[in-house]
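Appendix B. Chain record.
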Amino acid sequence: MIALLLALGSSLAYGCADFLGGLGARKAHVLRTVMVAAPASLAVELLLWPVLGASFSPAALGWGAASGLASAAAFALLYKTLAIGPMNVLSPVTALVSAVLPVTVGLMQGEHLGMAGLLGLPLALVAVVLVSAGHGTGSSRPSRTALLLALGAGAAIALQLIFLHQAPSDSGVAPLIIGRAVASVVTLTAAGLLYRRLGPEKPAYALSATAGVLDSLANLLFLLAARSGDLTVVAVITALYPAGTVLLARSVLAERIHKGQVVGLGAAAVAVSLLALT
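Structure tokens predicted for this chain:
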């Protein structure tokens, strides 16, 4: 139950971070948003170091660095995917892949689910697709390139979670610190190389920094959840993060929630309840 609650917190934090990051990216180039969010995220994890401890063993360094590279790749692939579109087709593909791969790894490592889990897991995967899909999913077909990018983005997100899960359980927040440092270096280097293409607009500092803080919180909650529960359950609950984004868009921006998304939110609630019984 503790792992489930932590995973739900991680999902909510990821959804809020995506929402605020998306708002920030509307005001300036997305890399300008990252230039603020990445250092803010790293600062939070450094502040957590004295509280939660960190052991920088070779394994923690290796898995943390791998998660950072996967995070940077996920960022680049995801935004390239959504830029090509259609978002209402590609976003569910990305979310589903990001859930299925960690579930597969967990099952291959010997994790087992009870009857409730066997019912809740596929229902949660269906909820991920429904919640992240927008209106008119069948209105247009993605190109082969866009579909491959969506699959790559989902795989990169999944790898980030898998690599964090593989880090030693006694390493504290070391994998998070290393991962965020690596991801920050990669993204800031990219921003520096593309600086002339970023435009003159200034980033939304408060929105971007808050998104970075929430992203750090999401990573921390996922790591704690994965250490206290099964990756199979934790990953699929975390992948429900589009629900938080959808609900915030409804309450803050008055965006309409479509019927399929309402069904997805209901399916997510049932799936979480079933997984809690596992």
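Further analysis of this model is presented in Appendix C.
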